[in-house]
Amino acid sequence: MRSKEFLQQLSAYAESMRAKIEAAFDGWDDSPQAVAERRKQVSDPVNGLAFFINHYFPHYVRSPSKSQLHRYLFERLPKVFASEKSCLEAIAAPRGEAKSTIVTQLSTLWCLVTQKKRYALLVMDSIDQAYPMLEAIKSELEFNQRLRIDFPEISGVGRVWQSGTIITRANQKVQVAGSGKKLRGLRHGAYRPDLVILDDIENDEQVRNPEQRDKLHNWLKKTVLPLGSADGKLDVIYIGTILHYDSVLNRTLASKAWNTAHFKAVLKMPD
Fold first, then answer.
1. 116-141 average pLDDT score
2. Which domain holds residue 131?
3. Stated pTM of the model
C-alpha cells in the first residue's frame, strides 16, 4: 500500500511537470499544413525520433549539441523499432547522460504517437523510482500543447490513468514495475508486451552481493525475455550505468545474444 505522503509527493511532481511543460509552449504553428508536415517528419523511419524530441520537448532539450550517446540513440533506436525481428539492446553509459529521459520517457512517447507499440513495460530498480517516470509520460500526454495540436488522437487522459498503469486514448498500455518482481501473464487484451525498457535495474547495495546478482540475472533471462507473445515481436532495451565488474549489465554486454554499446565518461584535460 502506497502511503498518503508518497501519493502527495507524486501529485506535487506531476504539478511541477505541468508547469514546466506549459511554460515551454510558444510560437507553435497550428495550421493544418504545418501539422501535417510535422506529423510526416515525426513518422520518418530514420530521423523521426530526433525530430520528435528536438521539436516537442524544448523543456528537455537544453543544447543543440549532442553527445556521442545521444547520436547513437537517435540512430539506433528507430532501427530497433522498425525491425521485423525482436531486438535485444544493451547500452551502458555514465550517470548524467539523460539516458532515462531519452530512452525510457521520450522514446516510449514516440512509440505511442507513431503507433509502433501497443504495450510497453518500463522497469526500474524499484517501483517507487518507476512511478515518477510514468507520471512524466502522463504529464506530457495531458499538458504538452504541441502534442495535443499535432496528435489529438492520443493526447489527453486515457481510459486508465493510474500511478502504475495507463491505457491511452489510442488503446496503448504503458505499465511500470520494479526489478526482480513477478511479471508473468501480463496482457493488454489480446496483446502481450512488445516493448520492455530496463532502466538502471541494479543498485549500489544489491550489486555487491553475488547471490543477488545471480538472482537478478536469472530474472532477466527467465522472466523478462519470455514476456512477448510466441509469434510476436518483443524489443528489450536495457540501459544503465555499470556498478560492478560482474554486474548484470556487464554480463549482458558480454552476451552475444544482445546488440551492445558501451559509452564512457569523456574526461576533459585541465588547461
1. 97
2. 4-262
3. 0.90
